[in-house]
């Protein structure tokens, strides 16, 4: 997606050979117009897939997922990383090792908001090693839901997550695929 690639080039910061910081429009401050365009793009890709719900992960998956949900006219449910008094039982849970935080979070989704009648579009901000996607797929499988595909804002194509998911037969659609972050430079596939 051209507008996303332009935002990455103009505002992204290469923190290391495998970490891209996009805090100014996706991970901290959010650019609503860009989110809306990305939501439209995901919705166009999945308009005939019979999506009934979008499943994402807090926090940074929520903005693009909500925009896609708005266009597709379906609810968006996000995996929560911390339990709370209002979220104690009746849960699907999965462990997700965080690439950026280097800790394992148990993500939870209420059984009230996911079931075997669902056809899901899974959305997340980044795809690196595929741990977050794996956790969300685990939750979807526990619910007996069908997964139509996985929509990613930025896939780092030089890390193994995308290849592994596609080899498992999942449809993966990434709005931007970064092929390298070497020498402090973003290169797209
Ligand atoms: P994975 O689970 O695929 O290894 O990594 C994806 C998750 O880690 C995403 O949910 C995202 O929050 C985070 N992540 C992975 N790589 C990056 C990166 O280069 N930049 C940022 N900002 N987040 C990343």
Q: Describe it for me?
A:
With 189 residues, the chain is an alpha/beta fold. The chain has a single domain, classed as 3-Layer(aba) Sandwich (Rossmann fold), CATH 3.40.50.2020. Helix content is 32%, strand content 32%. It has 6 helices and 10 strands. The protein has helices at residues 2-11, 23-27, 32-45, 62-72, 131-143, 161-167; strands spanning 13-16, 19-21, 53-57, 76-79, 91-97, 104-110, 119-127, 146-156, 172-180, 187-188. The strands form 3 sheets. A 6-stranded mixed sheet has the order 4-3-7-8-9-10, sandwiched between helices. A two-stranded antiparallel ribbon has the order 1-2. Strands 5-6 form a two-stranded antiparallel ribbon. A hairpin with a 2-residue loop joins strand 1 (13-16) and strand 2 (19-21). Helix 3 (32-45) crosses helix 4 (62-72). The N and C termini lie close together (12 Å). 42% of the residues are buried. The mean pLDDT is 96. The chain binds guanosine-5'-monophosphate. Guanosine-5'-monophosphate binds at residues 19-22, 27, 57, 60, 98-100, 124-132, 161.
Residues in β-strands, percent: 25-35%
Which value, in Å, is the CA radius of gyration?
Answer: 16 Å
Order of helix and strand elements from N to C terminus: HEEHHEHEEEEHEHEE
What fold name stands as the CATH topology? Answer: Rossmann fold
Q: Spans of 5+ residues with little confidence (pLDDT < 50)?
A: none
The major sheet is characterized as: 6 strands, mixed
- Mean pLDDT across every amino acid position: 96
CATH class descriptor? Alpha Beta
Please tell me what the overall shape is: globular
**N-to-C terminal Cα separation, in Å?**
12 Å
Helical run tally: 6
Number of domains: 1
Q: Would you report the number of β strands?
A: 10
What's the CATH architecture? 3-Layer(aba) Sandwich
Hetero groups in this structure are: guanosine-5'-monophosphate
Strand order of the largest sheet: 4-3-7-8-9-10
Q: What is the share of helical residues? A: 25-40%
Decide which structural class fits the backbone: alpha/beta
